[in-house]
Design goal:
alpha+beta, 2 domains, three-stranded antiparallel β-sheet, 7 strands
Length: 128
């Protein structure tokens, strides 16, 4: 019985440490390098990867521009992963329920044509 409790505690600790790593990465630290990442993870309303372009719809209060969002691309065993991070807050007051479109070519992202790209950002439905 004591052995089962010890194994359960070890499993819980392992799971919590993995969770800490994921939270740290999403909160703004690169797991591989330990460097701080810019801005905040940006929820996306939609994403499309086609024709060597990555296109996203993000929340906007009327002033969000492509320069306000920074794409971070990192390698993984399953192919590149992109995470959008907002580096400048949109303080305008014109709510755009559909959000605004931002797009990057694979060339801008440093990706080879035809690369398989995954999106790490959380999805958020546009306001009704």
């Amino acid at each position: 019985m004591k052995r089962i409790a010890t194994l359960a505690a070890a499993a819980a600790l392992t799971a919590s440490l993995a969770g800490c790593s994921a939270v740290q990465q999403l909160a703004g630290r690169s797991q591989a390098s330990g460097e701080a990442l810019p801005g905040q993870v940006e929820p996306v309303h939609a994403a499309a990867i086609a024709r060597d372009e990555a296109v996203f719809w993000v929340t906007s209060n009327g002033c969000t521009a492509k320069e306000d969002i920074r794409p971070i691309v990192r390698a993984s065993s399953d192919g590149p992963i992109i995470t959008l991070r907002r580096i400048k807050e949109d303080r305008c007051r014109e709510t755009l329920p559909e959000g605004t479109e931002v797009r990057w070519s694979f060339e801008e992202l440093g990706l080879a044509p035809g690369s398989r790209l995954s999106v790490e950002n959380p999805y958020q439905l546009p306001p009704a």
